[in-house]
Amino acid sequence: MLRLSQLFVRTLRDDPADAEVPSHRLLVRAGYIRRVAPGGYSWLPLGWMVLRNVERIVRQEMDAMGAQEVHFPALLPRDIYDLSNRWNEYGDNLFRLVDRRGADYLLGPTHEEMFTLLVKDLYSSYKDLPVSLYQIQTKYRDEARPRAGILRGREFLMKDSYSFDIDDEGLQLSYDTHRATYQRIFKRLGLPYVIVKAMSGAMGGSMSEEFLAPIDVGEDTFVRCTSCDYAANTEAVTTALSVVNDTDISAPQNIPSPDCPTIVTLVNLLNAQYARADRQWTAADTLKNVVVMLRHPDGHTEPLVIGVPGDREVDMKRVAAQVSPAEVDVFDEAAFALYPALVRGYIGPTVLGLTSTSEIRYLLDPRVVLGSEWVTGANQQDVHVAHLVHGRDFTADGTIEAAEILAGDPCPLCSSPLEIARGIEIGHVFQLGRKYAEIFGLSVLDKNGKPAVVTMGSYGIGVSRAVASIAEVFHDDLGLRWPRAIAPADVHIVITGKGDDGTTQFATDLAQQLETDGLKVLLDDRASVSPGVKFKDAELLGMPIIVIVGRGLAAGTIEVRDRLANTTTDVSSDTVAAHIVTLARSDG
Amino acid sequence: MLRLSQLFVRTLRDDPADAEVPSHRLLVRAGYIRRVAPGGYSWLPLGWMVLRNVERIVRQEMDAMGAQEVHFPALLPRDIYDLSNRWNEYGDNLFRLVDRRGADYLLGPTHEEMFTLLVKDLYSSYKDLPVSLYQIQTKYRDEARPRAGILRGREFLMKDSYSFDIDDEGLQLSYDTHRATYQRIFKRLGLPYVIVKAMSGAMGGSMSEEFLAPIDVGEDTFVRCTSCDYAANTEAVTTALSVVNDTDISAPQNIPSPDCPTIVTLVNLLNAQYARADRQWTAADTLKNVVVMLRHPDGHTEPLVIGVPGDREVDMKRVAAQVSPAEVDVFDEAAFALYPALVRGYIGPTVLGLTSTSEIRYLLDPRVVLGSEWVTGANQQDVHVAHLVHGRDFTADGTIEAAEILAGDPCPLCSSPLEIARGIEIGHVFQLGRKYAEIFGLSVLDKNGKPAVVTMGSYGIGVSRAVASIAEVFHDDLGLRWPRAIAPADVHIVITGKGDDGTTQFATDLAQQLETDGLKVLLDDRASVSPGVKFKDAELLGMPIIVIVGRGLAAGTIEVRDRLANTTTDVSSDTVAAHIVTLARSDG
Q1: Contact status, residue B108 vs residue B97, Cβ threshold 8 Å
Q2: Which one-letter DSSP state was computed for residue B272?
Q3: Nearest to B154 among A44, A75, A122 (CB)
Q4: Residue A138 contacts B where some CB pair is shorter than 8 Å
Q5: Which residue among A229, A456, B557, B588 is the one 20 to 30 A from A163 at the CA level?
Q6: Quick check: B339 contacting A, CB < 8 Å?
């Protein structure tokens, strides 16, 4: 039993100044967490109970699927991460340090390397496989913008696991097993989720899906189809490649276009001076060429021009996901000075491409389909060109999913309109493939006695982030509302009587009875605290059932509030214990 | 049930090259841990189970005593540790790093600062106290000599707790409660211990005791009385101050002593040229003055001369404990050049002391008692001085417990002979006092409404070290022998039959039955492994009960080995399950 008179907790009346989102605000106000540094939080007793409840559910389900728990150091030697090149690739996101002997170390942001080496150390035959290993461990990432309390911290608790298989069929099975386990975990946690296709990002590999909790404050934007079950991270949305067959398009024609460096000014000019017979010119008729500077992990930089229809912005998150591990920098004045072929505001495809004289890489969004006709820059100041046809008058070095995705865009599976939503990434399942096994030489002997490179899957759940995500989903204006599976206690009993009126005795007996029945009880037995403050605290702290033992006791009634259903019931004091036990064991 | 055919473990036939002690050797060979870096180890599934069993017992007992669990980040901002000066004091033992914004961080070696600030944040009245908080958390110390596997690592799991009281009586009670809890914890772990008085070291404060597991490979030397229950870390042994009253001692007399820079050469000279009538001169008649250089946390250095009887060495660990947080460096040639008053080999007390012309601090071991007479250096090359009396002819700036403790030295409590033993520090209880509360301004209002500085206790158990300590105590030539409370499984069942002879079926049924009865079973169901290898693995892995299902089954007998008692019993196959359950629930 937890007694509020002794529990190490203090609620705050005011929101913390730096709190941007409800979970952050409420977890601090309710005394669950405290900030220590940017992205670094201490867990107070109630918060720690919730975190451990989440951790327990994750562990139980991982064990149930047959995964085996191990534990690696967080402090790792550089040489291993040099082999995978992630010492460099992680850039500023990696915490690096030097020990007393001058050796380089890092704080592990993820442990692919370590797991690969461990399996190599122990296993040597196809008979040893498959195996899935996991750990629940503190991770470190030097985030540029730690935010929202424990939603995006620099030190956080994560379950990461890895599957090892002899072949692709095995990997698919391990992946499916993990995916099903994640579904069970989030169901037990009471956390709603959408599974979306994801980019593999810096990790290499193929099949990749994210579990997103659909919450407006989430950092991830995703799309889902309004008709079929397609869902994807915006980074991962694909656009079907198509072709236009129109052989009647006029030859390219230069158009003097002084002071028209933007799409808007260009479209205005077109409609004013080159009016079409059939319809108005729109931004969709123009081809916008956006230049960025890529910075590769080895430090070298490279210009990249991306062509998108003029009615769409370039979505830099989508671009970043596709050029990773290179990073995307702005293309500044100094850069333009280095590449005179690029005439700012008038860039066009005819001087672009690795095989052109400029040798500047040029990639097109798939919406710039083969055979389509465009108005675009003519690569000289104050001149555009019309009737420029993709495939006839220009080509590119390839395609890149770069244009922003808009609500109403067609679903790549069924062409129904897509809708756009936001979410928090709470889990990730990912077919890593043979990348790390190849780097570290993880092979086993196959059935024929020949070495076969092992194929891996990589799977993560943010354990501390799940706590915040649950708080985002389960709260109201009054405070937190924990799902039963992870609440610090099942029942919060508030004594509002004066002590000598039997309320303290009744409440204490009831708490004892409920604990005997297997419930965990938080008893507000504080003597000199007003009923109003006690009610407010009970609502803020968020136990799923609040029981009020007060004036009604004289008449034999106890007030039972269901914080999740938001209902209040007066129950006879004779049957209240049984009532509460039933309620605490119900769903929802 | 754990099946060896699927368990992620491989036993090694050979000892790891770097293994110095049995626990390290066996934990690596049995596949419990793997080295990743100096002082950094990965936990494999069996090792992790043991660690979590230890952690569970520690947590249960901490909760039972009413301590409340919290959790701090390991990555901590410098400013807090600047306030306590430990950013400097920890010297090279601290892992330091810089984040992407250039801010200084450290990896927490211990969390006094954080706990103090947290209580300050939440509590404000004497009514809130006492409170005891704890965490079970990964700690980091950049040890100069990480050794012995997980016995002394650089990343390790520790339970640290802190008590907060309004007055000294409260602190004593909190201390006693922690001490009793530690006794229960180590009893449950099956780990023998000795409680020894300890120095407070760098931590400041007063009462301090260590729990040592008496193991020969331990790094800590301690003494215990052969008669009373006195026990102390050698650093903490005290020598009673006494006085000699002898007014008949001759005046000091210089003695030419060419080529006598050592105690041995000096004693030989005395006996050859200045023979005593009553007895031979011995080293105990000489006063040895040893110079060291102190390096203070702020970087400044200071010479210190320590006087001990010539028949004892200076114990630098004892000195280090007493001058901490200053560190002890050797006094080298360059240093001698800076202090010409110090004539190497002929240093004597008459030029020493802060008030002397040399202004060099001079401290005497308490064995150099007031009124005693000595032969010692005369501060000129090739000259000693005899009949120099402490208090009559020289004084010092104070005393320091510096001389080595020898077996047979008198107990400071009862004067019986002391014995000397070695141990591993597995726990530490410590009255920290008001040091951190003063630094961080942790005051609460007392009964009279006046601010009172809180007094703290600090308490630690090395959780990962406890695993190694238990392995040190519980092993034999064949392998590990885990106490039941922390073994990865209660029973290890070995199938030695051929599968089609009913042994596999019987063993599997037995394993199921035992699991139903609440035991945890490790089943060696490997098909193509010889009985000899299976026996060796079972002995190495160290489950407390080994059950062999083999040829005897045809005759209705199963072999049950008690690894702890080292006995083997043939049991009827009809009753073997009940026999094992009884054995598994017995003590020992």
Answers
A1: no
A2: H
A3: A75
A4: yes
A5: A229
A6: no
Question: Cβ contact (<8 Å) for B31 and A138?
Answer: no
CB atoms B118 and A71 under 8 Å: no
Mutate to test the interface with B, among A97, A101, A129, A158 (most CBs of B within 10 A): A97
Sequence-distant (6+) residues with CB within 8 A of B575 are none
Chain B contact for A74, CB < 8 A?
yes
Is the CB of residue A368 less than 8 Å from the CB of residue A308? yes
In one letter, which amino acid is B427?
G
Beta strands A96-98 and A104-107 are: antiparallel
What the block records as the tokens of B87 is 């950013």
Locus of tokens 């991962």: A236
Q: Work out the number of other CB atoms within 10 angstroms of the CB of residue A56.
A: 14
CA distances, A474 to each of A213, A582, B466 (Å) = 12, 21, 41
User: Closest Cα partner for B151 from B59, B74, B56, B219?
Assistant: B219
Residue B448 in tokens: 């009279």
The runs of H, that is alpha helices, within A135-193 are 168-189
Q: Do B37 and A77 touch (CB under 8 A)?
A: yes
Domains of chain A and CATH, by start: 15-71+109-237+420-472 (3.30.930.10), 253-399 (3.90.960.10), 489-584 (3.40.50.800)
Which of the residues B70, B154, B164, B520 would you substitute to probe the A interface, choosing the one with the greatest number of A C-beta atoms within 10 Å? B70
Which pLDDT tens digit goes with each residue over A221-250? 899 999 998 999 888 888 877 788 877 888
- For B235, which DSSP code? G
- pLDDT tens for each residue of A34-72: 999 999 999 999 999 999 999 999 999 999 999 999 999
Q: Are A61 and A184 in contact (CB under 8 A)?
A: yes
Residue A24 and residue B26: Cα distance in Å, rounded? 47
CB proximity A123 to B under 8 Å: yes
Query: pLDDT tens-digit profile of A417-461?
Result: 999 999 999 999 999 999 899 999 999 999 999 999 999 999 999
Any CB–CB contact under 8 A between B276 and chain A? no
pLDDT band at A204, cuts 50/70/90? very low
Give the CA dihedral A19, A20, A25, A28, nearest 10 degrees: -40
Q: How far is CA B538 from CA A345, A510, B2, B4, B138, in A?
A: 76, 50, 13, 10, 31
Which residue is listed with tokens 């505001």?
A: A345
**Inter-residue contact B509 to B569 (CB < 8 Å):** no
Q: How far is CA A351 from the centre of its chain?
A: 39
The lowest-confidence range among A443-447, B51-55, B85-89, B156-160 is B85-89
**CA gap B441, B458 in Å, rounded:** 18
DSSP state of B442: -
Which of A458, A576, A465 has its CA nearest to residue A517?
A: A576
B43 at interface of A, judged by CB pairs closer than 8 A: yes
Q: What is the 3-state secondary structure (H, E, C) of A564-581?
A: CCCEEEEEECCCHHHHHH
Candidates A311, A288, A301; CA nearest to A364 is A288
Nearest 5°: CA angle at B196, between B403 and B243? 40
pLDDT of A85 > 60? The answer is: yes
Pairs of CB atoms within 8 A across A/B: 139
Q: Is A10 on the interface with B (CB under 8 A)?
A: yes
What letter would DSSP give residue A282? -
Dist CA B68 CA A2 (whole Å): 10
A56 touches chain B (CB under 8 A): no
Residue-level length of chain B: 588
Q: For residue B293, which of B320, B326, B330, B321 has the smallest C-alpha distance?
A: B330
Distance of CA B441 to the CA centre of its chain: 31
Contact: B76, A37; criterion CB under 8 Å: yes
Minimal Cα–Cα distance from B16 to chain A, Å? 13
